[in-house]
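Deliverable D2.4 — example input (C-alpha cells):
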C-alpha cells in the first residue's frame, strides 16, 4: 500500500499554525471561561499510523506552555467543516446551536474546552478529506486500529500529559465504540454521545427491514467515492449496494460490530429516546456490554445536538473528564451509574437515578391484546379473536390496528418493551410490522415527543420486524428484549400462523392515572418525513392477521417502575 501511495504522489497539506483570541469568537458557549484566553490552532498536523499512512488532524491547545489532557474525535465528515451551524440550519426545527465557528461537525467545541485546560484533536478518517489512504470502509476493524494509533500518537506529543479522552456525537460516537474495543493504553475516558455500534441492526436495517431513506438516500449516497467526503482518487465501500446485496447478517456485517465486552476504559454513554431508529439501542448496549469498572449511562428525552452543546450537557461532560483525565476528586465516581430523564411532556420530565440498566426493580407486566374490542388487558382473553388489516397503505381499507390501555395509577415505563404476536399473512409469504407506542393524556390528547432531531410530533417508542427474520438468538434474548439472529429467512406457508417477538427500543415515559397507552401496528412507516428513516422496500401484500386469546398469547410487555 505504501508503494502505491508513493506512486500516486499523494500530497498532504502543510501544517498551518494560528492564534485564536477567544474574545473574538462566538462566546455564548464559553460559560465563565477566560474570554481573554488564546488558543493555538495547528491545522492539518499529520499523525502517522502503524502502517505508515498519515491521518490529518486539527489540534487546538492552550497558548500557555505545558502538558494537558487531550480529547480526540475521529470522523469522515471533515474536521474543516466550519461553521457547521449553516448545515444545522438547513434541517427544520433544529435552529441555531451554541458553539463557535471552529467546531467541526458533531465535534467538541475547542472554544469551550481549551480555556478549560484541555487539548481538542479532530481527525479525518483514513481515505477521507485530506487523510491518506486508498479505500474507506464503514466501521471496519481498520477504523478501530486507526483510533488506537491516534490515541497513542496524541499521548506521545510534547503538549499532552499522557491522558487522552474521546468525545463526539453520532458517527463520532460509533468510532469511539470501535476504538475503545481496542483498549488503547492511554485512553482514559470516552463519551460516546448517541451512536450506534451494531451497524446492521441499528443503521442498515430495522428488525430486518432495510432503511431506504436515511441510510440509503441521505447518508449512504454521500459516503461514496463520487461525492461527499472521500479523499481524491480514493475509493469507498458502496454502502447502498452492500445493503441491497446482503440482506442477512453475514460475516461482512459482523466485522462491523465491535466486541463491546473488551472495553475497559471509563465510559459515559449517552442515549436519547428521540433517536430510536439510529442511536438509542447502540448507546444502551454499549453501556450494558462494556466491561469497564467505571461506566455510566445518561438517557434523556431531548434532541441530541441541542443537548450535547447545551450548558447542562457540557458541564456533565466536563465533570466526567475532570475526574478521569485530570484526576479531580469531584464526586463523579460516587454518582449513580444510571440517570434517565422520564418524559412527561415535550421537554418536560424528571431525572431518576438507578444503580444499573435495565432497572433492577422493574416490574415487567404483560398487557394482552384482545381483538374483540381492540383493548390491552392485564388478563388474557379466553376466546380466540382475530384482527385483520390491509398490509399496504390504503385509502379504502383499514390498514392499521390500534390497541389501548388506561392506567389507573401513576407509573413510569423505563427500559425495554417487547411485543409478542401471533400472526399470519393473506396473499404473501412474509410481512413487515411497524410498531408504535403512543401516549394520550386523560383528556384524550396525544402527547408528542422529539423524534430524530427535527420531528416534533414524535412517538413514545418504536419497533420494527420483518417476520421472516423472527429467529431468536436464545442465548442473548431476555424476556424483555428479543435478540434476532438475522441469519436466515423463515418464510410463511399457506397462511401459516407463527409467533414472533418485536423489540421495541428502550425509552422512559411517565403515565399518570387516566393516561392512556396506545399500541399501533401496521405495515408501513408510522412517521413518514424527509431526513428520517423509511422502509419502502416492503414484502407486504394482501392482509396481515393478528391472533389473540386462547392459546395465542399476543401481548405487550411493559417495564413498569414505581413512581
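Example output (designed residues):
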Amino acid at each position: 500500500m505504501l508503494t502505491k501511495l508513493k506512486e500516486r504522489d499523494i500530497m498532504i497539506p502543510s501544517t498551518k499554525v494560528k492564534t485564536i483570541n477567544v474574545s473574538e469568537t462566538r462566546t455564548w458557549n464559553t460559560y465563565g471561561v477566560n474570554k481573554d484566553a488564546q488558543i493555538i490552532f495547528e491545522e492539518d498536523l499529520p499523525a502517522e499510523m502503524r502502517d505508515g499512512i498519515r491521518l490529518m488532524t486539527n489540534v487546538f491547545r492552550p497558548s500557555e506552555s505545558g502538558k494537558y489532557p487531550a480529547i480526540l474525535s475521529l470522523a469522515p465528515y471533515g474536521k474543516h467543516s466550519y461553521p457547521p451551524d449553516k448545515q444545522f440550519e438547513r434541517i427544520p426545527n433544529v435552529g441555531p446551536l451554541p458553539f463557535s465557528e471552529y467546531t467541526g461537525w458533531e465535534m467538541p467545541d475547542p472554544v469551550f474546552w481549551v480555556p478549560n485546560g484541555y487539548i481538542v484533536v479532530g481527525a479525518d478518517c483514513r481515505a477521507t478529506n485530506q487523510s491518506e489512504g486508498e479505500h474507506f470502509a464503514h466501521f471496519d476493524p481498520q477504523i478501530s486500529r486507526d483510533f488506537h494509533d491516534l490515541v497513542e500518537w496524541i499521548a506521545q506529543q510534547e503538549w499532552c500529559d499522557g491522558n487522552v479522552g474521546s468525545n463526539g456525537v453520532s458517527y463520532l460516537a460509533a468510532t469511539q465504540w470501535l476504538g475503545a474495543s481496542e483498549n488503547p493504553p492511554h485512553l482514559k475516558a470516552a463519551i460516546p454521545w448517541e451512536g450506534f455500534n451494531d451497524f446492521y441492526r441499528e443503521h442498515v436495517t430495522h428488525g430486518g427491514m432495510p432503511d431506504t431513506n436515511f441510510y440509503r438516500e441521505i447518508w449512504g449516497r454521500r459516503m461514496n467515492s463520487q461525492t461527499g467526503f472521500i479523499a481524491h482518487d480514493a475509493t469507498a465501500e458502496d454502502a447502498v449496494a452492500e445493503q441491497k446485496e446482503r440482506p442477512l447478517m453475514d460475516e461482512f456485517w459482523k466485522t462491523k460490530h465491535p466486541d463491546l465486552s473488551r472495553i475497559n476504559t471509563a465510559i459515559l454513554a449517552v442515549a436519547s429516546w428521540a433517536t430510536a431508529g439510529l442511536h438509542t439501542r447502540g448507546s444502551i448496549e454499549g453501556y450494558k456490554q462494556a466491561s469497564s469498572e467505571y461506566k455510566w449511562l445518561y438517557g434523556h428525552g431531548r434532541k441530541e445536538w441541542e443537548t450535547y452543546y447545551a450548558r447542562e450537557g457540557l458541564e456533565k461532560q466536563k465533570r466526567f473528564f475532570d475526574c478521569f483525565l485530570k484526576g479531580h476528586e469531584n464526586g463523579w465516581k460516587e454518582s449513580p451509574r444510571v440517570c434517565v430523564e422520564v418524559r412527561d411532556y415535550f421537554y418536560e420530565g424528571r431525572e431518576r437515578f438507578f444503580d444499573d440498566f435495565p432497572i433492577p426493580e422493574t416490574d415487567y407486566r404483560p398487557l394482552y391484546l384482545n381483538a374483540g374490542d381492540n383493548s390491552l388487558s392485564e388478563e388474557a382473553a379466553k376466546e380466540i379473536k382475530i384482527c385483520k388489516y390491509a398490509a399496504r397503505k390504503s385509502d379504502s381499507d383499514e390498514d392499521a390496528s390500534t390497541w389501548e390501555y388506561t392506567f389507573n395509577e401513576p407509573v413510569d415505563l423505563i427500559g425495554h418493551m417487547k411485543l409478542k404476536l401471533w400472526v399470519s399473512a393473506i396473499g404473501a409469504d412474509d410481512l413487515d410490522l411497524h410498531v408504535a407506542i403512543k401516549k394520550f393524556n386523560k383528556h384524550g390528547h396525544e402527547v408528542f415527543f422529539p423524534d430524530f432531531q427535527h420531528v416534533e410530533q414524535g412517538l413514545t417508542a418504536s419497533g420494527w420486524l420483518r417476520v421472516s427474520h423472527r429467529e431468536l438468538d436464545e442465548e442473548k434474548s431476555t424476556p424483555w428484549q428479543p435478540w434476532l439472529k438475522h441469519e436466515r429467512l423463515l418464510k410463511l406457508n399457506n397462511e401459516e400462523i407463527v409467533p414472533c417477538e418485536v423489540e421495541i427500543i428502550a425509552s422512559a415515559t411517565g403515565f399518570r392515572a387516566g393516561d392512556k397507552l396506545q399500541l399501533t401496528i401496521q405495515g408501513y412507516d408510522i412517521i413518514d418525513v424527509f431526513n428520517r428513516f423509511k422502509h419502502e422496500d416492503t414484502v407486504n401484500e394482501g392482509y396481515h392477521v393478528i391472533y389473540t386469546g386462547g392459546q395465542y398469547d399476543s401481548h405487550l410487555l411493559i417495564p413498569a417502575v414505581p413512581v
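Residues 141-155 form the longest helix (15 residues).
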